[in-house]
């Protein structure tokens, strides 16, 4: 069971209200998506996410240091593992298939 203070309250339609404040606050809970390292690994491995997951991940990036965010975006565009594997092993695979 996760601690209540780490669960977050962003799913409450009106937010979480404290005292006499009319406007509710929305707080996200702890998430591995907050780690630039985890997002960088996902980008390097070219992990695909559905629209809701991608929206959450990009929202979390707004709270990262700008250098971390730019590094992840660089990896997504320029450093795809699948592309490098293709370049390295495509000819080898073709040779094996044609034997």
Automatic annotation (TrEMBL):
<dbReference type="InterPro" id="IPR000898">
    <property type="entry name" value="Indolamine_dOase"/>
</dbReference>
<dbReference type="GO" id="GO:0020037">
    <property type="term" value="F:heme binding"/>
</dbReference>
<dbReference type="GO" id="GO:0046872">
    <property type="term" value="F:metal ion binding"/>
</dbReference>
<keyword id="KW-0479">Metal-binding</keyword>
<dbReference type="GO" id="GO:0004833">
    <property type="term" value="F:L-tryptophan 2,3-dioxygenase activity"/>
</dbReference>
<dbReference type="GO" id="GO:0033754">
    <property type="term" value="F:indoleamine 2,3-dioxygenase activity"/>
</dbReference>
<keyword id="KW-0408">Iron</keyword>
<protein>
    <submittedName>
        <fullName>Uncharacterized protein</fullName>
    </submittedName>
</protein>
<dbReference type="GO" id="GO:0034354">
    <property type="term" value="P:'de novo' NAD+ biosynthetic process from L-tryptophan"/>
</dbReference>
<dbReference type="GO" id="GO:0005737">
    <property type="term" value="C:cytoplasm"/>
</dbReference>
<comment type="similarity">
    <text>Belongs to the indoleamine 2,3-dioxygenase family.</text>
</comment>
<dbReference type="InterPro" id="IPR037217">
    <property type="entry name" value="Trp/Indoleamine_2_3_dOase-like"/>
</dbReference>
<dbReference type="GO" id="GO:0019441">
    <property type="term" value="P:L-tryptophan catabolic process to kynurenine"/>
</dbReference>
<dbReference type="Pfam" id="PF01231">
    <property type="entry name" value="IDO"/>
</dbReference>
